[in-house]
Amino acid sequence: MLKYTCLNPIAEAGLGLFDDEYEKVDTIEEADAVLVRSAAMHDLELPETLEAIARAGAGVNNIPLEKCADKGIVVFNTPGANANGVKELVLAGMLLASRDIIGGVNWVQTERQNEEIAKLAEKQKKQFAGYEIQGKKLGIIGLGAIGILVANAAVNLGMEVYGYDPYISVDAAWKLSRNIKHINDVNEIYRECDFITIHVPLLESTKNMINQEAINMMKDGVVVLNFARDILVDENAMVMALKTGKVRKYVTDFPNHTTAAEKDCIVIPHLGASTEESEENCAVMAVQELKDYLENGNIRNSVNYPNCDMGDCISVCRVGINHRNTKNMISQFTSIFGNADMNICNMVNKSKGDYAYSLFDLEQPLSAEVLERLKSVDGVLRVRVIK
Ligand SMILES: NC(=O)C1=CN([C@@H]2O[C@H](COP(=O)(O)OP(=O)(O)OC[C@H]3O[C@@H](n4cnc5c(N)ncnc54)[C@H](O)[C@@H]3O)[C@@H](O)[C@H]2O)C=CC1
Ligand SMILES: O=C(O)CCC(=O)C(=O)O
Are residues 151 and 163 in contact, defined by beta-carbon separation less than 8 angstroms? Predict the structure, then answer.
């Protein structure tokens, strides 16, 4: 029986895919696999039983990726599964920033008992007037799953769209509308755009990306949107820029003490992916990834190990080895199998940075002795007999 636990609520559409071979447990200490959304995992003790973690979402900054890789724990995410949910909220964010919908709705609430409300509204509404987004310039930093959808939707809304992503994938580039202006220098976005939205992962290299220097370059009255992570932006500098009017509105999906009470911050409680559809898409993808790894040893959409696929496990025995990406590993594994008179009928070896993964289909069952020999190879982090 394989055991999984959920560190956040995970949609039933995904959990329902676990069959009788799986048991849901309450704590990580008992689990072979973990499903998580935004729960912080950096300080958690990771038990030896834990084989895999699936992030039902995109950002993995809440998970200690390297610590997991060192323990042979494969971490997955669900690329693109919540991108449409975020895209729609980014569009809403642009509209909330350009039309004073929040001010207007709040005014109606304060006047709700007033019998003259209809007449009064016609007099008062000018204080909530705004401007249109059609024809405005939108700069998008990061053209991955979300950035692309925002870019294409904004083109359809009549915006002039500038896109910046020095690492854009070929797949992503194919999906982008031809009407998007491809920008090679992010400063051009800062200097030219009326709206700027950021859709990059939180990494050491992207932390504080929108800093004082970037803000100084921006047009007066710019709107900045952040549905990626709060510490991508120097929010103290952002609040100062709001006070001087340099930035008209800062729309963020990440409430904190710096922004929550600021008049011109539109702060949303991390709702980007909180739609029925996104939650279901993420849960289904996350559970499928976990099951394929636990049952077949295949890795799809891992962020700390390479992708690897040998299809369904139909051989007598399948062994997965998580190991360091160093020389002579394969020769040591094949010698161990050969010396034990075992034939390898199929194998794959893949690497990603400092880590690698090897999957072997064998014609004989694996003995405890051979298993111990594999485990004792220097650089081996985990050996799993899948079948
Ligand atoms: N508010 C919410 O609920 C959600 C927030 N997110 C956040 O949004 C981020 C992006 O999500 P996706 O688009 O799904 O990820 P993705 O991985 O598909 O796209 C990220 C893109 O950023 C690009 N990039 C990386 N470094 C860059 C840099 N220095 N400058 C410009 N581009 C750079 C990459 O090349 C990639 O194309 C996630 O990492 C997560 O932090 C994601 C989903 C939901
Ligand atoms: O699970 C959530 O609601 C958070 C989504 C998110 O931030 C992500 O996928 O990176």
Answer: yes
